[in-house]
Amino acid sequence: MKRFLQWTSILMAVALVTAFVPAAPFSSMADETAPAPDRTDVRNGWIDENLGPGVARWVDKNGNISDQPGKAEKESQGSSSEETKEHKSQEQKTEDSSQESSTNETASEESGQAETQPAETGRQIDPNRPMVALTFDDGPYAPVGNQIMDSLAQYGGKATFFVVGSRAAAYETELKRMVAEGHEIGNHTFDHKYLNRLNGAQIQSEINRCNDAVFAATGVRPQLVRLPGGNKNQTVLQNVKAPMIMWSIDTLDWKTRNTNKTIQSVLTKVRDGDIVLMHELYPQTGAAALEIIPKLTQAGYQLVTVSELAQYRGGVVPGGVYSQFYR
Ligand SMILES: [Zn+2]
């Protein structure tokens, strides 16, 4: 009996010690191989950078950890300024478009895409001139998205927003504006899961639920998919039926959070047919877009959606993977 009690107390002591020593700093990341730095040491940096944009968490100078920006915000917080901006650009648009509305009708009939592509306001793409597709992932996020759209409206450009379905309901007004102004909404899964870790049914669910959420908010169903982290394997390739859009310029905007580096990464590399990867969640990306949009326009680039770019450069097929549309 005495011996049994001794063993019991040793076992209890071991159990107690184990309980207070966590096996991994963050239980949800136990499957990550790279060691995560101690969160108490990080200031103005990422605590789990290896997880990539949309997943990694940023620690500010006070040690506050931010998840994905804007995730917890309700639309009501930003809706008044959102609506004002929307109204303003709608007015501008009406003025711009009035003179060319007749050509627009013909164009949309011919293209046969009236169901998925909203009526365009007299914009014409010259297939012989260079074009670039700017893409913004991980939104919607109205504070940055509206800034980007204001600038695009000013310079007559369009962009593609690969959105996360779980965020759609909170930013319905912003999504509606994207459609109304001729931008493209792409599918970035329902809750930004890395699809290479899922089975076929789960992959299809991530894609379908995002499409449903965007459709519920806008009446438009995304036609293109961007894989979170760009991660794919055979199961992903077999189960994603839509064209998968990668990128040819990675700005690393999410990682540097540096406006100037983001601008330079585009302007020093850009060429006709590029797909540029940026992220909608960061104010520094919004600020960079305000420089990139006029500079590319002045350099002669037409800013087009991914579907527009594809349309003039050979098109896309279901299940195909594309990282650029060079001539
Ligand atoms: Zn992402």
- Kindly state the percentage of residues in helix: 40-55%
Overall geometric form? globular
Structural class call reads alpha/beta
Computed Rg: 23 Å
Class of the largest domain, according to the CATH hierarchy? Alpha Beta
- Specify the biggest β-sheet: 6 strands, parallel
Known CATH architecture of the largest domain = Alpha-Beta Barrel
Count of separate DSSP helical elements: 11
CATH homologous superfamily title of the largest domain: Glycoside hydrolase/deacetylase
N to C succession of SSEs: HEEEHHEHEHEHHEEHHEHEHE
What small-molecule ligands were found? Answer: zinc ion
Mean pLDDT: 81
Q: How many domains?
A: 2
What's the β-strand tally? Answer: 11
Overview of this protein structure:
The chain is of the alpha/beta class and 327 residues long. It folds into 2 domains: 39-68, no CATH class; 118-322, TIM Barrel (Alpha-Beta Barrel), CATH 3.20.20.370. The protein is 42% helix and 10% strand. The protein contains 11 helices and 11 strands. The chain has helices spanning 2-20, 75-97, 101-111, 142-155, 172-180, 200-218, 234-239, 253-256, 259-267, 283-298, 306-312; strands at 45-46, 58-59, 65-66, 131-137, 160-163, 184-187, 244-245, 249-250, 275-279, 302-303, 321-322. α2 (75-97) packs parallel to α4 and α4 (142-155) packs parallel to α10 (283-298). Mean pLDDT is 81; it is low at 14-34 and 72-119. The structure holds zinc ion (ZN). Zinc ion (ZN) is lined by residues 53-54, 137-138, 188, 192, 228.
